UniProtKB/TrEMBL annotation:
It is found in: Cell membrane. This is Carbohydrate ABC transporter permease. PROSITE patterns: ABC_TM1. Its main location: membrane. It comes from Streptomyces niphimycinicus. It is a multi-pass membrane protein. Belongs to the binding-protein-dependent transport system permease family. InterPro entries: MetI-like. Residues 64-256 form the ABC transmembrane type-1 domain. Keywords: Cell membrane, Membrane, Transmembrane, Transmembrane helix, Transport.
């Protein structure tokens, strides 16, 4: 009983910032900083109507679409490229496989800021600055070594007899991958999709570097621009837009949380 009480207390502490964000989105501007109460004295519904108008004449619907376009493109790229790279490292035999796999794992420790300037120079020469390609194209090149490693660990736990049976039936490496290995790797792929979606959706720094036209802004960039768009700090509408930005992540996580737990458990114990 005491353990349950402690767990409930910890849960309330962890959920308090979310409750505070939701309550603050209904507060008048003078209560956001001046008052320490969780609930507002009266609900300011105008915060949400102002947030729906967006920033710099760009509606919140357009901002939401831009964020979804980048996040879904990144998810598609990571799932395709990381699964192909993981299959090569986990199931195929080729020269320099060990050193290449070790080099790939070492890139996990490489800070993102160390490669930001070279990447920006490359995309600038390709004419892709102020487009969504710098956030999407690298995902199709298996640049996220963490997800490659995660899928490799999962694939190494799959029985090789399945591939051998497929090879006897005349399947080549690609047919074995798409028909045998890929369906069995669904938990790891869904785990990759969930983390990619969340990390890409919340990525502020990369979007700030490559995007500078308001029509191409995401919700993450709009949150920063929202305060700068007026002479006074419109905290109420800003928190209302934060709720809009948080809602897709919560829905995405709730829809796939069962597969997330299954994929993390299986990938961590096998291999």
């Amino acid at each position: 009983m005491a353990l349950h009480a402690c767990l409930i207390a910890v849960l309330l502490v962890m959920l308090y910032p979310l409750a505070w964000l939701l309550a603050t989105s209904f507060k008048p501007a003078d209560e956001v900083i001046a008052s320490l109460k969780l609930l507002p004295s009266h609900f300011e519904w105008g915060n949400y109507s102002t947030a729906l108008d967006g920033v710099n004449e760009v509606s919140v619907g357009r901002l939401l679409w831009n964020s979804l376009l980048i996040a879904c493109g990144a998810v598609l790229g990571n799932v395709i490229s990381c699964s192909l790279a993981a299959y090569a490292f986990a199931r195929l035999r080729f020269r320099m496989r060990g050193p290449l796999f070790a080099f790939m794992i070492a890139t996990i420790m490489l800070p993102h800021h160390a490669i930001l300037i070279p990447q920006y120079i490359i995309f600038n020469q390709l004419g892709m600055v102020n487009t969504y390609w710098p956030m999407i194209l690298p995902k199709f090149l298996a640049t996220d070594a963490f997800f490659v490693f995660l899928i490799v660990q999962f694939m190494r736990g799959l029985p090789r007899e399945l591939e051998e049976a497929a090879r006897i039936d005349g399947c080549g490496p690609f047919r074995s991958f798409f028909s045998v290995i890929l369906p069995l790797t669904r938990p790891a792929l869904i785990t990759t999709a969930i983390f990619t979606f969340i990390w890409t959706w919340n990525d502020f720094f990369t979007q700030l570097i490559y995007l500078f036209e308001p029509e191409k802004f995401t919700l993450t960039l709009a949150l920063r621009s929202f305060v700068d768009a007026s002479s006074q700090s419109a905290f109420g509408p800003m928190f209302a837009m934060s709720v809009f930005a948080l809602l897709p992540i919560v829905l995405f996580f709730l829809a796939f949380q069962r597969f997330l737990v299954e994929g993390m458990a299986s990938s961590g114990l096998k291999g």
